[in-house]
């Protein structure tokens, strides 16, 4: 599903700014920060502000389109993919990596109605270990 369809399906008016932000999030798996999204889109949308980016991400998160991650306690990062996956934050290069999730401790939650799972690790990625 594309950016426009995603927004319409979540009853969000697809303005040019919202479409550009959603398209960007669907095109990368780098978990960009507000700054990174702003820097990428500013040449396309010269009137863009960081506040607009932040407010748009907050709206998308509230509507369940994206996840906002604060794994390192400092930067808010956007994840445009809602498939079941965990995150690994490299404490060396500060990159955030996705990894697939299997069934984690599901038997312990018999009778519970699980809505979300948040799994993350921190450490050094393969490149930073060299």
How would you characterize this protein structure?
This protein has 130 residues and is an alpha+beta fold. The protein has 2 domains: 3-79, Winged helix-like DNA-binding domain superfamily/Winged helix DNA-binding domain (Arc Repressor Mutant, subunit A, Orthogonal Bundle); 85-129, 2-Layer Sandwich (Dna Ligase, domain 1), CATH 3.30.1490. The protein has 5 helices and 5 strands; from the N terminus they run ααααβββββα. Strands 4-3-5 form a 3-stranded mixed β-sheet, with no helix packed on it. A hairpin with a 7-residue loop joins strand 1 (67-69) and strand 2. Helix 3 crosses helix 4. The mean pLDDT is 89.
Gyration radius from CA atoms, angstroms: 16 Å
CATH topology of the largest domain: Arc Repressor Mutant, subunit A
Distance separating the two termini: 39 Å
CATH class of the largest domain: Mainly Alpha
Q: Helicity, in percent?
A: 25-40%
String of helices and strands: HHHHEEEEEH
Summed up, the domain count is 2
Order of strands across the main sheet: 4-3-5
Number of separate helices: 5
Portion in strands: 15-25%
CATH superfamily of the largest domain: Winged helix-like DNA-binding domain superfamily/Winged helix DNA-binding domain
CATH architecture descriptor of the largest domain: Orthogonal Bundle
What structural category arises from helix and sheet content? alpha+beta
Total strand count, please? 5
Form type: globular
**How much is the average pLDDT?**
89
Unreliable spans: none
């Amino acid at each position: 599903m594309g950016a426009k369809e995603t927004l319409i399906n979540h009853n969000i008016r697809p303005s040019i700014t919202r479409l550009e932000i959603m398209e960007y999030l669907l095109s990368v798996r780098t978990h960009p920060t507000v700054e990174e999204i702003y820097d990428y889109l500013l040449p396309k949308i010269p009137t863009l502000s960081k506040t607009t980016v932040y407010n748009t991400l907050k709206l998308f998160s509230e509507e369940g389109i994206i996840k906002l991650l604060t794994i390192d306690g400092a930067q808010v990062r956007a994840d445009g993919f809602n498939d079941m996956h965990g995150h690994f934050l490299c404490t060396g290069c500060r990159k955030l990596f996705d990894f697939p999730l299997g069934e984690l401790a599901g038997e312990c939650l018999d009778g519970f109605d699980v809505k979300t799972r948040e799994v993350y690790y921190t450490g050094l990625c393969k490149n930073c270990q060299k």
